[in-house]
Amino acid sequence: MVKKASTQEKKIFVLDTSVILYDHHSIMNFAEHDVVIPITVLEELDQFKKGNDTKNFEAREFIRLLDRLSKDQMIQHWTPLNGKTKGSFKVMMNPDNALNANEIFGEEKNDHKILNAALSVRQTEKKRKVILVSKDINLRLKAKSLDILAEDYETGKIKNISEIENTGKDVIENVSQDTINDLYEKSRLEGAAIFGKRRKTIPANNTFYILKGSTPNASILAFYQAQEKSFQKISKSKAYNISPKNAEQAFALHAIMDPAIKLVSIQGVAGTGKTLLALAGALEQRSNYKQIFLARPIVPLSNKDIGYLPGDIKSKLNPYMEPLWDNLKFIQNQYKESDKEYQRISDMVNQEKLVIQPLAYIRGRSLSNIFFIVDEAQNLTPHEVKTIISRAGENTKIVFTGDVFQIDTPYLDSQSNGLSYLIDRVRNHPLYAHIKLEKGERSELANLANDLL
């Protein structure tokens, strides 16, 4: 997909429903090229417009946008998009093609109707390049089997995923023993004492460092505060009796516990301790916040959200939230049942100081004095991540955890999911810190699965 004006002749992009549910403003992101919306897409959006989920919001906003753009014009004809650099759009009625996707694939379904629309546009606009844009990989493959050009919706995708993978942590070699000793003793040193002439560029905000000396055992963990231009020593301190087991976990727990950092993201494969550390850090700081919110995105079946499940809201959410409860129970079991810390967790749940929060109902709220943990954030869209963060009021901290390579939703990937988008867009901001956990700590058996299977 093209975002900037091109010297080539204007192309025609045919949009699938998945693109609009991902970004209702997508129709405006094709530069001077023209856009076709198959009538089947509008029919599908009509089914999605009711509900509290993000896809329902996207459907409603697109319908309103199309209504504003069309004004009093008939939209089966080319209608200009706003702005001199924009092209035009129209809605394609169900065509009667010689080549029929329903017959070719042996089934009448909406995807095939959208393919028929693309085939019809290509037949009537023979001198122009026609491209189907879809976030549905299988639909793109079917399009290519019919000799239709097809591509993913690229706006907002991270171009180089390896860049964000290495965000947040660095290693400095050959630091003098005297400098390491000074940092151990004083807990804080000026950046120039460590960087010296090593670095010509300005270090990023809130970067974690492993400072290594000339001997194998000479090293120290540190945190660089760009605003103060100083290094702070990091100790492997406990949070609600949970101790970090490696350098990256110590970095993550420091970011979680630092009151100056309001937004944290933790990336890592299963078993690296992302959720456990976030929960332990939240419990350790319970007196600083009114409530602790726990959430994870629900991947629904078809167009049904949790409202279609039986029972009250708690009953609907519990099956999806078991991994969070497992981590909470693990923390609680670090204590004896007679210990006050054990009972405190039960009391927090009973008194709703620790609450499971459905993300579908968060729009429009203002969350003040909240420690908010969002697990499996890689299954959120960029718009959903923005919606969550924009709800933050005074003294609210948000921690996103997830693995950008383990996507459960069909129209997201490692480059287009909300967690990747967050890391890429917010890195180097003074309110934000990111760390990638690399070593599995759940068990040797879990590490075997991650490494060998």
TrEMBL record:
Keywords: ATP-binding, Nucleotide-binding
Domain (PIN) ranges: 11-141
A GO molecular-function descriptor: ATP binding
Chain segments annotated as coiled-coil in the UniProt record: none
One Pfam family named in its UniProt record: PIN_4
SMART domains recorded: PINc
InterPro entries: P-loop_NTPase, PhoH, PhoH2-like, PIN-like_dom_sf, PIN_dom
Gene Ontology CC annotations of this record: cytosol
Family: Belongs to the PhoH family.
Name of this protein: PhoH-like ATPase
Source organism per UniProt: Cyclobacterium xiamenense
Lineage: Bacteria, Pseudomonadati, Bacteroidota, Cytophagia, Cytophagales
